[in-house]
Write a structure and sequence with these properties.
heterodimer, A: 334 residues, alpha/beta, 8-stranded mixed β-sheet, B: MetI-like fold, 2 domains, 14 helices, 77% helix
Chain lengths: 334, 306
């Protein structure tokens, strides 16, 4: 599968009164056509900032993308998203890359009808007349599973439940048949049964529309059900990237190990205590010249404090940024 | 929508009854209303005759029922001073007060909202800094003092505006400006903070993620939401300006209801005071009702209730 999006060495900083927050420190990854890539990490790991940086959606000032490339293969050929003008970026946003955000309650404008909020995207990107946009929006409401779409078109967000609002958000995201949909914790604010419905809807849409999805989450349980590949972020860096099964079976990074150990499992015979990772997430105000996880890592040795481990192969399509091999019980052989 | 409006109307009627009760009690709270209304030199016989005439010797509840039922019909009795119906005197003063408040409100809106919008969209910029300083000044300068300074400077020294009265069209400028200044400050700050708040809302990020043009985002998504808090404050402020212009009308000798109120208190003309108090309350309540309606027109969450 060819890559539809190639991100290399993305660096984003926030210039705040407290100092420079190093939110994203050289993130690289590929997104393949039609695949779902999950980006996991705890709060503040830089997963949202990474994707928002690609499309100029970080608040600026104080946010500033300071380096890297993001080659996007859209209808207009291959372009570097980070070098596009504001106008060109607006064409991409909503037209070729759609967004679904975490909180469907606050993410919809309370004083516009949901129909209007879907239709305005169609009018903007596909030059549709208002009537055509209206018809297409009603179709989209049907596609995302909203009953009585014709009546619901004229309703306001507060007349919908949380799950239904998230369906509306998804309708907005897919309105212009984008190549990529970026879903930023789309199920976090929903209760578990609704989460499952939204996951199913996403899977179905991906099969019918064939778009690639970047799914940002801190919930490894959700990842297993939807993603093909997983990217683990920590302190604004990629620690590990692997196909989802491989990651669950043989996690290479001690941090991934820790995350999986903190996850309750239904298939375990004996009950065990859930393991938590000791220590706090890194302070991004302090630039590091060593492994960002070294402070909390039980395997850290002298080399981990001397240089930043590069992302290197650890299996088929599996890469890890760690000097230590848990499987070998010692430093990883290069 | 209808239920919302009916509920608000019901609230207003209850409040009006409360106002009537309050006005009724105030006249009697200090003791004998006859003694309050008559001059100190009145003889006991004169007081007794007055009580008889005004009906103060009847049971309190009967008096209140009588007062309210007459007040609802617009009958507040004759002014003690002028011997003419009190309400009619109030209505004669209404246009002047209305003009003053309307011009003042317009001045405040025309200056405050553009400044607030620019400040909100460009916080920390030059316009924002100037606007915020003006707002602070406007809210902190005592306006009776400002009124006197303006009379000294613009009327006496420069002779641009008349110092008192309502004889020329430009007479309204100075009193309206003095009245508008604090409202200007408040409205500017409110607009600015509303813009800042709405700009940071998640749904604005959604609008940006759709690739909408900045113009569309500002007018369609930001400004309409900013209008919601503004409308309620403008409504309340207009009511306040209509009812609270006593000293500005007095300083500028503006022949409005505030001036009449000040004079009628001096004359101990209680029927007139009562008529002004009740009438002003009715105006404020009506304005609030209008504000609530406008609110509902913009905000569907109120229109459809939840």
């Amino acid at each position: 599968m060819p890559a539809i999006l190639k991100v290399r060495n993305l660096v984003t900083k926030f210039h705040t009164l407290d100092g420079i927050v190093n939110a994203v420190n050289g993130v690289s990854f590929d997104l393949h056509e039609g695949e779902t890539l999950a980006i996991v990490g705890e709060s503040g790991s830089g997963k949202s900032v990474t994707v928002m940086s690609l499309l100029g959606l970080i608040p600026s000032p104080p946010g500033q993308v300071e380096g890297g490339t993001a080659l996007f293969s859209g209808p207009g050929g291959q372009r570097d998203l980070l070098k596009l003008s504001r106008q060109e970026l607006r064409e991409v946003r909503g037209g070729q890359i759609g967004f679904v955000f975490q909180d469907p309650i606050s993410s919809l404008n309370p004083i516009l009808t949901i129909g209007e909020q879907i239709a305005e995207s169609l009018v903007r990107h596909q030059m549709m007349s208002r009537e055509k946009a209206r018809e297409r929006s009603i179709e989209l409401l049907t596609v995302v599973g909203i009953p009585d779409p014709r009546q619901r078109y004229g309703n306001y967000p507060h007349q919908f439940s949380g799950g239904m609002r998230q369906r509306v958000m998804i309708a907005i995201a897919i309105a212009c048949s984008p190549e990529i949909v970026i879903a930023d914790e789309p199920t976090t604010a929903l209760d578990v049964t609704i989460q499952a419905q939204i996951l199913d809807l996403f899977k179905r849409l991906r099969e019918t529309l064939g778009m690639a999805v970047i799914w940002i989450t801190h919930d490894l349980g959700v990842v297993a059900g939807i993603a093909e590949r997983v990217l683990v972020m920590y302190g604004g860096r990629v620690l590990e990237i692997a196909p989802v099964d491989d990651l669950y079976e043989r996690p290479q990074h001690p941090y991934t190990h820790g995350l999986l150990g903190a996850l309750p499992r239904l298939d375990e015979r004996e009950s065990r205590r859930l393991v938590s990772i000791k220590g706090n997430p890194p302070d991004l105000l302090i630039p590091v010249r060593h492994c960002p996880f070294a402070w909390r890592c039980e395997y850290a040795f002298d080399r981990c404090w001397q240089e930043i481990p590069p992302l290197s192969p650890a299996g088929i399509q599996h890469k890890v940024a760690c000097f230590y091999s848990i499987e070998q019980g010692g430093p990883r052989s290069d | 929508m209808h239920r919302y409006f009916l509920a608000k109307l019901g609230q207003s009627i209850l409040l009006l009854l409360g106002v009537l009760l309050l006005v009724f009690v105030m006249v009697r709270i200090t003791g004998d209303p006859a003694a309050l209304m008559m001059s100190r030199e009145s003889s006991p016989e004169q007081l007794e005759a007055f009580r008889e005439k005004m009906g103060f010797n009847r049971p309190v509840l009967v008096q209140f029922a009588d007062f309210s039922s007459k007040a609802i019909k617009g009958d507040f009795g004759l002014s003690l001073h002028f011997r003419t119906p009190a309400l009619q005197m109030v209505l004669e003063r209404l246009p002047a007060t209305l003009q003053l408040a309307a011009v003042g409100l317009l001045m405040a809106i025309v200056v405050a909202i553009p400044l607030g919008l620019v400040g909100g969209f460009n916080p920390g910029g030059l316009t924002d800094s100037v606007g915020r300083s003006l707002a602070l000044l406007g809210q902190s300068i005592p306006n009776f003092w400002l009124a006197l300074i303006m009379i000294l400077f613009f009327a006496v020294r420069l002779g641009w505006f008349p110092s008192f009265g309502r004889d020329e069209i430009k007479s309204v400028v100075m009193p309206a400006f003095v009245m508008a200044l604090p409202v200007m400050g408040q409205l500017m700050r409110l607009t600015r903070s509303a813009v800042l708040e709405i700009r940071g809302e998640d749904y604005i990020r959604t609008a940006r993620s759709k690739g909408l043009e900045p113009k569309t985002i500002y007018f369609k998504h930001v400004l309409r939401n900013v209008a919601i808090p503004l409308i309620s404050v403008i409504g309340v402020q207009f009511g306040y300006m209509l009812g609270g212009s006593i000293y500005i009308e007095t300083i500028f000798a503006w022949p409005g209801m505030g001036q009449l109120l000040e004079q009628s208190i001096g004359w101990r003309d209680f029927p007139l005071v009562q008529a002004i108090a009740v009438f002003t309350s009715v105006i404020v309540l009506a304005l609030n009702l209008l504000t609530d309606m406008a609110y509902a027109l913009i905000d569907p969450r109120i229109r459809y209730g939840n």
